[in-house]
Amino acid sequence: MPIAKQNVSAQQLYSELRQLLIQVRWLKRTCFILLIFNIIAAVVLWILHNPQSFGV
Question: Can you give the residue range of the structural domain that contains 30?
């Protein structure tokens, strides 16, 4: 992005910033969902490897 383009309107800057915030929000939500899936998978694997502790 060239620095010579300094006459960018505040409206354009604001819309770009808002789009960036939306992307960051989606990224955080995706990471959170992946973390939940990781925890669930770890618990399921642990139960499958230790069936005697649950009486399954």
Answer: 11-53
